[in-house]
From TrEMBL:
Transmembrane segments: none annotated. Pfam families: CoA_transf_3. One of its GO terms (molecular function) is CoA-transferase activity. This is CoA transferase. InterPro entries: CoA-transferase_III_domain, CoA-Trfase_fam_III, CoA-Trfase_III_dom3_sf, CoA-Trfase_III_dom_1_sf. It comes from the Bacteria. It comes from Frankia nepalensis. Keywords: Transferase.
Amino acid sequence: MTAGPLAGIRILEAGHILAGPYASMLLSDLGAEVTKIEPPTGDMSRQVSDAYFASLNRGKRSVCLDLTTPAGQNGLHELVAGAHALIVNQKPSAIRKLGLTYEALRPHNEKIVCVAITGYGLHAGDDPAFDYVIQAATGVAAMTGEPDGPPTLPGYSAADNSAGLTAALGLLAQILSGRGGQIEVSLRDVMLSQLNYKASAYLNEGDPPVRHPYGAHAFYVPAQLFPTADGHLAMFLTHDRYWRTFVAETAIDPAEVAAFPTMADRAAHREEVVAVVTRALAADTARNWEARLRPLGLPVAAVRTLPEALADAPDAIIEAGGFRLIASPIRIAGHTPSYRPPPTLGQHTPT
């Protein structure tokens, strides 16, 4: 097995809770040496639970520095001199006050890449910007849920995780350029960018997003959750070939669907199509439908709980320091990540 593709890359992380730590953990899994700079009280996620902290900080080194003091700043500058990049997710005023910008660190390493993850931008003020707040502010919550129900938030931290992925991408791109510099990644911009086709439909055609029952897709029909004899089935039938295969397997009367043989026809007859599909799927359970339809090449899945999903994906679970965690989603031929334990607070602080 080869060393990770990022072997030899040294990254500093002055982050807390999720977005910054997730970004640097992904890079650590790829072979980078990540040093986590923690205040004397530690990353706030240490106060949540050991398992929470481990899920975002495995394989890192921990150096305890009080960046509000001259000694802490000296320690920071020594680390920066030998680093390729710094990731930070804190309030903009704190990032500047603690000297965690490229402008402040350039005298110590002209080629360092500084990535600032904030709510709205490094120069946009300190308005609180937690994940759920961003999902509300960017329209995600308003377009999620049943048509006659309240706005709904996803069951996990979509904005923080997406910002971490984006930050890691930006960091690597700038390192590859060979130039140092400041990179900004805001949770607001990340979530708006992920609304791509929905935003484009409104900006270019004046069509605001509309909620459909069971989370149905705006353009493709049938593409949503469906109730079955037991459980719910997610189905995403786009191609006409998918539709013909589904009709044949479920023994739907061809006369019932004669009016919508194409994708455009089905979109124009959404309610009729959904009614036909719902009746057909009531004849069996979600798990059985999955077992029947997947071998035919149809994109379907029974709705699983998290425990059920993990039981079905043992290859996605690894162990690091006694914690069972989710493996890196990036699989590289010839490289197996070294999943090491999360560090204790200040474990690698020079004595």
